Amino acid sequence: MDVVQDVAEVFATLPLFPVFNACHYTLMILTTRYDTGSLALSRSNPLANWVASMIACFGGYILADLLLGHSVLSFLAHPEDVVLASAIWYLLFYCPKDLFYKIISVLPLKLVITALKETARVRKLVAGIGAAAKVYPHSLLAQVIVGVAKACGNEFLLNFEQAVRGVWKPDINAILQPSFSIKACVVGAVMIILGRSDVLMGISQEMVVLAVSLWLISVAVSMKAFHADDPFKPVENLFSPFIFGSADSLPADAHHHHPPAPEPSPAPKPPSGRRRGKAAKAD
Q1: Is 258 part of any domain?
Q2: Helix (H) or strand (E) holding 129
Q3: String of DSSP letters for 132-145
Q4: What average pLDDT does this structure show over 178-182?
Q5: Helices within 68-106 (DSSP H only)
Q6: Which domain holds residue 128?
Q7: pTM of the full predicted structure?
Q8: What's the average model confidence in pLDDT over 207-225?
Q9: At what angle do helices 205-226 and 180-196 cross, to 10 degrees?
Q10: Where is it localised (predicted)?
Q11: 20 in Cβ contact with 120 (< 8 Å)
């Protein structure tokens, strides 16, 4: 047990810069690149493409600072991270022969990058919970919200990031369609808060963070490697009808979301034969 505790303590103190942050920036900019029109925009308007990529990279910091009443530009206090993210952005969009993109798209390397990125995600989750605990020490819900916002901020700001690139898809957002990462961070945030409050007897916060990290890494890597579905879906499909009801239990008028279309107005009557004759003579 002491060995595991030592490993957990070392794991909790690993610096995120540059390796873990580089993996995070790589996957975030890849997400931007995969979106429709992003490659064309990188040629027609590199500035807009860069701004959108930086929002994807630092969305967690921006959203968490916004929720806590801090400056949304506080991430600029770490220029080394901005330089690193910008360098990766340039390589992903402008590297000769697209060599950098082809290298990191190799599946084994992409799985390693995913594992390191999820490690950084959990660390940001812990940092967000800690920052919220200073402002809202008695609100566990606020701590969960800020922690998840810092860990998954890029997903919540996706619509804003797309708007910068001239794309508007309001029907696609993290509230309507939460990803596995968001759901896992909610569960992880609850576990970390319980570890901070000594509810989990005999289990330190470092060990909770290590356990959450290993769980998130294993599931995320498996989903990417085998194209697996969200593991939360079977649980949701099982319990959702009992807790929230099913679509079959809706009232009959609940399916009519829009008022019926108005009946088309009758076509105007053609002019009488006498009028047509007069019109022909006038011509």
Answers
A1: no
A2: helix 107-135
A3: HHHH-TT-HHHHHH
A4: 96
A5: 79-94, 99-104
A6: 9-169+177-232
A7: 0.86
A8: 96
A9: 170
A10: Endomembrane system
A11: yes
Residue 206 maps to a domain: yes
What's the distance, CA 123 to chain centroid?
Answer: 16
What is the C-alpha separation between 264 and 196, in angstroms, rounded?
66
Q: Are 67 and 145 in contact (CB under 8 A)?
A: yes
Q: Evaluate the omega torsion of the peptide bond into residue 264 and state whether it is cis, within 30 degrees of 0.
A: no
282 domain residue, yes or no: no
Question: How far is Cα 231 from Cα 133, in angstroms, rounded to an integer?
Answer: 30
CA–chain centroid gap for 58, Å, is 12
Alpha-carbon distance 202 to 205, whole Å? 10
Q: How far is CA 181 from CA 43, 159, 241, in A?
A: 31, 17, 23
Query: What's residue 76's pLDDT?
Result: 94
Q: Which sign, positive or negative, has the C-alpha torsion 253, 254, 255, 257?
A: positive
- 3 lies in some domain: no
Q: Which residue has the higher pLDDT, 113 or 249?
A: 113
Q: How many domains does the chain have?
A: 1
Structure tokens at 254: 């609940």
For residue 52, give both structure tokens. Answer: 């959108």
Q: Alpha-carbon distance 179 to 152, whole Å?
A: 10
Confidence bin at 149 (pLDDT 50/70/90): very high
Residue 52: count other Cβ atoms within 10 Å of its Cβ: 26
